[in-house]
Fold this protein.
Amino acid sequence: MVSAPEQKGQRPGGPMATRPLHFIWIADCSGSMMDGKIQALNTAIREAIPHMRKVAQENPNAQVLVRAVRFSDGAYWHIAQPVPVEQFEWADLQATGATDMGKALKLVAEQLKVPPMTERALPPVLVLISDGQPTDDFAAGLNALLDLPWGKKAVRIAIAIGGDANLEVLQRFINNPERPPLQANSPEKLVSYIRWASTAVLKSASSPHSEPKGASGGGNVPIPTPPSTPGGPQDVW
Amino acid sequence: MDGKSATVWHVAGARVVGATHKRADKPCQDAIRWEEGESFVVLAVADGHGGERSPHSDVGATLAVEGAVQFLSNFRTRAISSSLSALKHYAEDQLPQALVQDWIERVKEKADVSKSETRSEKEILLQYGSTLLAALVTPEFLLFAQLGDGDILTVMDDGTVTRLIPKDKRLIANETTSLCMPYAWREMEVVFQPVSAELPVLILLSTDGYANSFASEPDFLQVGKDYLELIRQQGLKQVAAHLEKWLTEASTCGSGDDIAVGLIYRDTSESKR
């Protein structure tokens, strides 16, 4: 009679798997994004995808899974199922309506509970992009997110598009005074920050090294330095 | 006590460089040590944190396992004339602080703190930060200690696998309690078990890179029963000879992290002479 370990080539234990790393875009699709911003965002994310794939290939022990939330009048999963980055394709967002950012954070929070998250996952990366003021109960959404262990541990990046973005709420989302929101006042800067979040930050989050509990105030993934993009005449937003 | 004194425990173990560290040409930051004494065995594994803030954590992990094995071996020697209740009291009340302090002293000596003008002790300890899991098995008692992530499994004769120290639910996203934390001993879990009627037949200590390589918790716990089955079929030496290969496969197909695994097996077919 052949025993269980012998049947599977002797290696002890059950099936193995790489560690999931959930990457979630949280995109403002309010009416104020209509004047070229939404198209710039669509372009920036689309251009970042090949670079995300390259980072993922360089660390095959992290299974990068991407999805997206859009918020305007309410919040919805734009890409609901976690898609392996190798198969991820960006579908264009359209802009219209209000800025229900709080509802978007609640939507994300639902997915960061255990389950569906697993304890063995790598820290998720949440990238919030907005050009305006929340029109709903932002605090309720933020609290729902930060009340969860995975919400607290998530790498939270915020990108402000244009001068009308509410930097204070984006800072509260980041929840770390040492890391201000990134200010993108032109399509070029938006591309640069989106690229940084989807490559340098992704790479840092996919490392398996440990951090002593409480040793870092703002999360246990070291955040790389964002690209330097000084303001100037090219600012259009 | 005749049945107990006839019990012989043997140890085997291995550590491997994780797939991620191989790609980055970094050293293994996990460590393992053991000692088989006349009437006891002691085993320790440790996981150095890695990362930019803990550049010497491979050394810190090595100091942790060396210190724990030496300390627990001495503890065993001193324990021979003590009552079980006194040992239990010491293990639960004083051992954590003693083990942590032993590690701190070793790190300070290694880092030559007296010559450091720019770094605080806290910064130096962080540079060497590590977890620690240890087991001491004697004819009279079993003692387990754990500070930080990782797993201690016991396997009974019928293959039942138990995680001896429950997972710390606070520790997700690669965050761990550590020897380098202020008041680290408060975070150390200690289990003291007087030898009773039923002993585990196999004890497994592993760093978190091992459990993180399996698709689920049951898939990981399956290793306990599988190792026992393999040891009974092939013997501990044969299993030990395959260990590096299996752990390398686990890291490559799973977490990518360094892995250290130690096995303590109770061989009832032998008896001490």
